[in-house]
Design brief:
With 99 residues, the chain is of the alpha+beta class. It has helices at 18-28, 48-64, 89-92, and strands spanning 42-45, 72-75.
Length: 99
């Protein structure tokens, strides 16, 4: 497979910061688990400021983590919306955690 499953988060930085989103991202999965390309841990950024913030966030995790951080930081390119049955996955999973 030559794709990575991900979500596109549109946000208002006046309401929630990119840093806040990264903290929530970190709370939802383990950045220390190596995974296949399809399910890998990656932070996509849309500008240089987000790239810098993401790299600083991961640097902070590296100082406190007991394992190797496998999360990558990459520029956002084209986003393909998944089929409808993949939409609202967490809500459809009835509170189960699959991360």
């Amino acid at each position: 497979m030559d794709y990575t499953e991900c979500v596109l988060v549109e946000f208002d930085p006046e309401v929630v910061t990119f840093e806040d989103l990264l903290i929530e991202f970190g709370n939802m999965h383990s950045p220390t688990s190596p995974r296949s390309r399809q399910y890998r841990s990656v932070i996509f950024y849309s500008n240089e400021e987000q790239k810098m913030i993401a790299e600083e966030y991961l640097d902070g995790l590296r100082t406190t983590s007991r394992g190797e951080i496998h999360t990558k930081v990459e520029p956002m390119t084209k986003f393909y919306k998944a089929e409808e049955y993949h939409q609202n996955y967490i809500a459809k999973a009835s509170g189960k955690r699959y991360f």
